[in-house]
């Protein structure tokens, strides 16, 4: 194959992108395995409570901490920057870079939607058991209350809708850049350094 510095640079970039994807995937697989274990334990708890005639209580196996840290603080800002990178480079980058960028955006959107659905379920469950402002069995925490959880979900949903509009702007706008306050930007006025 090609042994030039450009070819090696492309290979290194590809390997690093794949390495980062695998690193993230291994953590996701681990958390998915733990989540399945927790769901199984929750199902067994519900069965035991029903057999004993006790109130089930909070019966949602969610991931509100992961939602706040991984989705709101990592995935949503990362999605914003990935779309910005695509806006700047869509007309000038090689196909592999564009495909990797689209893959990054697609997986981020999928994980945000999936996690948002879980968080919505947790917020509704908190309302069901009366955890409106605070929640928890041993300690009353604001972060477990429905108001806090649904407010965080609403904030993330707003970011997701803004990101979705910007992503659709890649094809809607001739310049590939949709500014949320000004609309499609004129490609002659855009200056990208690099």
Explain briefly what this protein structure is.
The protein has 194 residues and is mainly alpha-helical. The protein has four helices and two strands, in the order H-H-H-H-E-E. It has two domains: 56 residues; 132 residues.
Secondary-structure blueprint:
Layout: H1 5-52, H2 64-89, H3 95-128, H4 146-172, E1 178-179, E2 183-184
Antiparallel strand pairs: 1-2
Helix pairs in contact: 2-3, 2-4, 3-4
Account of the protein in words:
It is a single chain. With 194 residues, the protein is an all-alpha fold. It folds into 2 domains: 1-56; 58-189. The protein is 70% helix and 2% strand. It has a two-stranded antiparallel sheet with strand order 1-2. The longest helix is centred in the first third of the chain and has 48 residues, at 5-52.
Q: How much strand content do the residues show? A: under 5%
**CA-atom Rg in angstroms:** 22 Å
Helix content: 55-70%
Structural class: mainly alpha
Strand order of the largest sheet: 1-2
| Outline | elongated
How many helices? 4
Low-confidence stretches: 4-9, 15-24
Report the span from N to C terminus: 28 Å
How many strand elements?
A: 2
Which series of helices and strands comes N to C? Answer: HHHHEE
Q: How many individual domains? A: 2
Rounded mean pLDDT score: 76
The oligomeric state of the chains shown is: single chain
Report the sheet with the most strands, covering strand number, pairing sense and barrel closure.
2 strands, antiparallel
């Amino acid at each position: 194959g090609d042994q030039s510095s450009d070819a090696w640079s492309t290979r290194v970039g590809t390997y690093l992108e794949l390495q980062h994807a695998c690193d993230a995937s291994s953590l996701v697989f681990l958390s998915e395995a733990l989540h399945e274990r927790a769901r199984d334990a929750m199902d067994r708890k519900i069965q035991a409570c029903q057999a004993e005639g006790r109130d089930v209580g909070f019966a949602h196996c969610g991931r509100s901490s992961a939602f706040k840290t991984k989705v709101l603080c990592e995935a949503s800002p990362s999605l914003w920057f990935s779309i910005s990178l695509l806006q700047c480079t869509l007309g000038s980058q090689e196909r592999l870079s564009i495909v990797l960028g689209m893959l990054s955006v697609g997986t981020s959107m999928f994980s945000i939607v999936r996690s948002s659905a879980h968080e919505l379920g947790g917020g509704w469950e908190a309302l069901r058991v009366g955890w409106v402002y605070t929640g928890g069995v041993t300690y009353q925490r604001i972060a477990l209350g429905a108001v806090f959880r649904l407010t965080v979900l609403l904030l993330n949903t707003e970011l997701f809708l803004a990101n979705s509009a910007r992503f659709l702007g890649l094809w809607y706008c001739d310049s590939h850049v949709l500014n949320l306050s000004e609309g499609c930007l004129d490609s002659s006025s855009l200056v990208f350094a690099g």
